[in-house]
Amino acid sequence: MYSFRNGIVGRDRGGVRLLAVLAAVAIAAPILNQVVPASSPLHLSAFGITLIGKYLCFGMLALAIDLIWGYCGILSLGHAAFFSLGGYAMGMYLMRQIGPRGVYGNPVLPDFMVFLNWKSLPWFWYGFNHFPFALLMVGLAPGLLALVFGWFAFRSRVTGVYFSIITQALTYALMLGFFRNDMGFGGNNGFTDFKDILGFDLHSDATRVVLLVITAVALGASYLACRVIVESRAGRVMRAIRDAESRTRFLGYPVEAYKLWLFVFSAIVAGVAGALYVPQIGIINPSEFAPINSIEAVIWVAIGGRGTLYGAIVGAVVVNYAKTYLTGAFPEVWLYALGALFVLVTLFLPNGITGLALARRKRK
Amino acid sequence: MKSKSIFMTGLLVAGIGFSNVAAAQDTIKVGVLHSLSGTMAISETTLKDTILMMIDAQNKKGGLLGKKLQPVVVDPASNWPLFAEKAAQLLEKDKVAVVFGCWTSVSRKSVLPVFEKDNGLLFYPVQYEGEESSKNVIYTGAAPNQQAIPAVDYLMKEVGVKRWVLEGTDYVYPRTTNKILEAYLHLKGVKPEDISINYTPFGFSDWQTRVAAIKKFGSAGKKTAVVSTINGDANVPFYKELGNQKISAEQIPVVAFSVGEEELSGLDTKPLLGHLAAWNYFESINTPANKAFINQWHTFIKNPKRTTNDPMEAHYIGFNLWVKAVEKAKSTDVEKVLAALPGLETPNLTGGTAKVLPNHHITKPVYIGEVKGDGQFNVVWKSAGEVPGDAWSDYLPGSKDIEADWVTLKCGNYNKVTKKCSGQNFK
Amino acid sequence: MKQPGSGGRWLRVLLPALWSIGHVYAQAPGDTAFLSTLGELREATYSDKAAIAERLSQTGHRSVRAVLTALMEDRLSYRNSDQKIFIVQTADEDPARLIDPLTLKSAGSAPADSLTKIGTNNSLRHTLRTVVAHFSLSSPDAAVRLEAVRDMLQSLDEPTLDLLRKRLPVETNGAVKREIQTGLALATLDGTDAKARLEAVATLSRRVSQDVRNRLALLLDKSPDGSFTEPDEKVRRAAAAAVASIDEWRGFYSGIETLFFGLSLGSVLVLIAFGLAITFGVMGVINMAHGELMMLGAYTTYVVQMIMPGHIGLSILVAIPAAFVVAGLVGVAMERTIIQHLYGRPLETLLATFGVSLVLQQAVRSIFSAQNRSVITPEWMSGSLQLNGALAITYNRLYTVIFTLIVFAILLVVLKRTRIGLDIRAVSQNRAMAKAMGIRTEWVDAMTFGLGSGIAGVAGVALSQLTNVGPNLGQSYIIDSFLVVVFGGVGNLWGALIGGMSMGITNKLLEPYAGAVLAKILVLVGLILFIQTRPRGLFPQAGRAGEDK
Predict the structure, then answer these.
(1) Are B249 and C373 in contact (CB < 8 Å)?
(2) Is residue C206 one of the residues assigned to a domain?
(3) What is the pLDDT of residue C23?
(4) Of the residues C199, C231, C263, which one is the last residue of a structural domain?
């Protein structure tokens, strides 16, 4: 019979802790927001809910990166592109939901199209007024891009630093493209001013709490999925690819296929993270494609500890919390602190924060 | 143990989410939402300092309603989602009475839902494209009819321009402005082949091809001018290239809407001599109020070489309007202040008055200035009086039927023809 | 012609001027009349000022040229206390050195705020330029004469044409003669003699400027009632042929111009990529702070210009070695403190250097303020080289291209012919072997990083002439520099050169058709596809350093 303790999940102590924490958040947040009165110091404001939701979405992105980097040695410096594509897909659905409540009152065309004098909806917007279609696109758009890009790249054996740089080129090109007003994605302003999702008002506390809970569940589920992949036989092949790619190829494994499918899966996870991010933050904008965002996401993983999966999530939460705190407390000098953090962690904590925790436990 | 990690998480969540309990009773908090790092820091840091200076001066006069003003400064780091987050922080966590902030339209649009949901008050000091009027925002910057249209009129009448290049950065402010200007030019009888509209991305720095094309367009024998809505960093290489390709302001003048004294201080002004800018304020305008303001600024910032510019004046006006409104309403409650604002007047720095209109814009005079060698502007034209800001342009088919009125109609986009209120605040 | 009583050396300069204008303008003697007309400038509107300037030029007074030139250059002011008008020696100087408008002699100096400038606007300056050009026609300097004739071509009225006709036989400079002939030919096109018009068309067909082409094209126009503006058919046919020929030549020159644009864009890309190619290639270090090192070089230029404000022309030449040293030292410091601990872990260095880049950006913001700094372009780098009527090459870009090639040559020499270069190449090909041969690899690493950083600083000097100098300078160029290095092949200077140049040229070739953004996107996509075919770039690195296990 399947024993929990000895199963995949049971052996993963860090992961168990993470899932417990997520569960705690998913339970506590609704209570603290809806049940506890606003005047009480324990009340969790909408601002707080949104913040936690944001951290969890970033955690999912970091998870996606760690999956391919920590376990397969593929360093993608353009993963925020997949995150943003998923976000845009969700955004397109939310824009269609605004309907006649937009500034110009057009029932079909979003405001920015009316303003550009477009008479009808472009073909790639069809279908986005249906939620299931939008959900499909959330996975399909990043997945398809990853498939095409990855197929070309891995087939040509582009690896290491070269691969990383061309992923930067990819996200940079996408950023330039989405900034263009003519592309039909809202240009520089992106999508904003959302009203509701599936009929629920996006500005109400209750909706925000539900979104947070869904995000926590999604994060937990993705974590479990990643863990299963990594502990499986395929996972061991991937680790072999990470450690000695040529040798693995000579041993007869279809290295390119493994890399490709892992890359596509990771892209879809990132896309879903983006799709959860957008309704909570309320805006999606081409600067999400900026190359610097992808680099930052990789730094979250490095700081949290790569190759552990839960470390990535820890890193994402810690760094973003530090940013939130520092931009409020030390608005003039927070960049120093952040930069110093990056340098120090890379120098002294090569295995990140979780590596430090693990090392200390080993010594006990 | 599991319990330990849950406990740690709990602490983390507490640190993140829980509101700050003790809101000090004897101060009024004023929020400042300007980027202090990132691409917009160049422009916005000055505005943060302006508000700090105004708060300082007000406190020296005894504060407001007997309480001291306390600034709450945050850095949204030129990141649009972060703007929304910081706005929520200011309104929900710090519970500020008013916020002075934003620069780009994206930042304003991303904080708008937050201000409308939390019923906050934002004073927005930058010239923008219009097409908006929110209950919770007072627009102290110029709408297109207070900057772009008068500039085009000046070029048409005083300079005799017949051919037009509308050169903008690819985002909503230039796109909207150019739409309005195109409609206006057609109305004035300019033929489509005499108008050339072009957009370049942010931070565009290699202008060789583009400037050569402008030169060609301008050599058709008719007087040509460039109306530039080029934003920020791209201006420097643009003007350099103009100068290097020997396009002088006498041959093809360029009138810019986003180049002020601040931007000129980071430029070598030789290639710009004679080129134009349209604003509602210039540092070189000689009035006692302006001289006093400039001195106050130099003393506060401890640097006699720092320039003043139009958005700073907008914050000066906005801050004074807010103080007056609070004194009139005898409270900082946003609803009461919003009720007190329309109709309120305060002097501007160029010898006139700024009045708050029911559409939450203000009245502003229009000045056209030519760039001088020392980075200042020489005023070559001034409007007859103050121009009232029009949120919904009369030249755009989608907007000419819309009006904003928060006093009688209580609506930001009211369609006069269909008699319906819709848009931002419409639930 | 009256000889003014006093005067001195100014007279000797103005005498030829007086002679040439003597036949054109009525002589109205009297300093008082001149002064009172001059005084009207104080209170006049801009359009009135233009009329006053005309009247002044017709007085024939010896100071007319100096006064009108001063007015045009914003150097005419009046003293607040006694309303007397003075010419100011140099604009924006405090205290200002005054020159008496009548005698053109020094009149002492005064603090700047005791004077009020007599303002001008664009139209007024435009008018003044044509008026002043009449006087400049007899200047001993050929460049000034050429400029004057070109200005006069803008408005060919009778007095102007008269001057040109008189000047032609005595003109010695070939270029100036050509311009005068162009002007006279253009004027003849309006004449009544068909044969003369035909000759004029023949003369003009050998020019390539846009203005000439437009004027010839006008001859082919039809007036509203259907008849041609040019009645003679032979003239029309000649004009049509001339226009076609001019268009062909202009197209050719336009192609050369596009090529030049591409080369100059490419040279910027190459400069920013050189340093990275070296550090990346030799040490496998992905330096995310590379952009900030360039920014430091640009700021060094700013500081140098602040230290030597009177010698802007020299400042660039001083700034180049200064920037090299500053950026190089910062690079060596980075290497010694951070990077040396991270060898063999290229991705960790990426992260650590990213942190350094944030710190450097904020440091510059704190020291210099978040605003952009103004870096002045020296005289010898401003403006453009007018090769002919259709092709002008801007100086700053031309020098950038030349500079890039010089830097490339120097780097090549250093790498191929010096001892340190040999060490660097050895370490990059096979570190273990090099160490075994006795090379001190740590020292070589520090030097390599210093060299790469120094080159980045020098690139920053070039960038300061082309674009903004602000804390975000590095961010705008870092991605491009990586792309060039990857395209050209890591560690290879020729790769960086050819890679950068081709990227620049491709971009500029596409731009007129696709627009700036689409052109850039196409270049990026092209790069991605190219890497598929040659995963190691144009010139892959020798040795196994770049290989994985």
Answers:
(1) no
(2) yes
(3) 44
(4) C231
- Do C278 and C372 lie in one domain? The reply is yes
What is the dihedral angle through the alpha carbons of C489, C491, C494, C499, rounded to the nearest 10 degrees? 40
- Residues C183 and C322 grouped into a single domain: no
Q: Which of A103, A197, A203 to mutate to test the interface with B (most CBs of B within 10 A)?
A: A103
pLDDT cut 70: percent of chain A above it: 97
Please give the residue of chain A at the shortest CA–CA distance from B84: A281
Q: Cβ(B252)–Cβ(B224) under 8 Å?
A: yes
Residues of A in contact with C348 (CB under 8 A): 302, 346, 350
Classify residue B203 by burial, with Cβ atoms within 10 Å: 0-12, 13-18, 19+.
middle
Domain check: are C434 and C351 in the same one? yes
* ipTM of model over 0.85: no
Kindly list the residues from chain B whose CB atom is less than 8 angstroms away from the CB atom of residue A190: 80, 106
Residues C177 and C118 in one domain: no
Q: CA A268 to CA A221: how far, in whole Å? A: 13
Q: Which residues of A touch C341 (CB under 8 A)?
A: 347
Instruction: Give yes or no for residue B198 having a pLDDT over 80.
Output: yes
Q: pTM of this prediction? A: 0.82
| Domain encompassing residue C290 | 252-548
Q: With an 8 Å Cβ cutoff, are A115 and B37 in contact?
A: no
Q: Do C122 and B373 touch (CB under 8 A)?
A: no
The reply to whether C142 falls in a domain is no
Give the C-alpha separation, A298 to A316, whole Å.
9
Q: Would you say residue C434 lies in a domain?
A: yes
Inter-chain CB proximity C377 and B245 less than 8 Å = no
CB contact under 8 A, A179 and C348: no
CB contact (8 A) between residue B268 and residue C512:
no
Higher-scoring residue by pLDDT: A176, B55: B55
Any domain includes C39: yes
**C225 in the same domain as C316:** no
**Domains parsed from chain B with CATH numbers:** 2-142+287-363 (3.40.50.2300), 145-284+368-388 (3.40.50.2300)
* Residue of B46, B209, B250 lying closest to C122 (CB–CB): B250
Percentage of chain B beyond pLDDT 70 is: 93
Highest mean pLDDT among A257-271, B24-38, C507-521: A257-271
- Report the pLDDT value the prediction gives residue C17, as an integer from 0 to 100: 54
Count of structural domains within chain C: 3
Q: How far, in Å, CA of B228 to CA of B204, rounded?
A: 14
Tokens of residue B43, six digits = 């422009």
Is C294 in the same domain as C336?
yes
Give the confidence band of B7 by pLDDT, cuts at 50, 70, 90: low
Task: Supply the CATH number for residue C382's domain.
Answer: 1.10.3470
- Do C461 and C360 fall within a single domain? yes
Instruction: Give alpha helix (H) positions in B245-287.
Output: 261-264
Which residue among C121, C122, C468 sits closest to B266, beta carbon to beta carbon? Answer: C468
Helix (H) or strand (E) holding B174: helix B172-187
Closest CA to B255 of B155, B175, B173: B155
Q: Are residue C169 and residue C267 in the same domain, yes or no? A: no
Cα-based torsion angle of the residue sequence B174, B178, B179, B182 in order, rounded to the nearest 10 degrees:
180
pLDDT higher than threshold 90 for residue C88? no
Would the CB atoms of C467 and B373 count as touching at under 8 Å? Answer: no
Q: How many CB pairs under 8 A join A and C?
A: 130
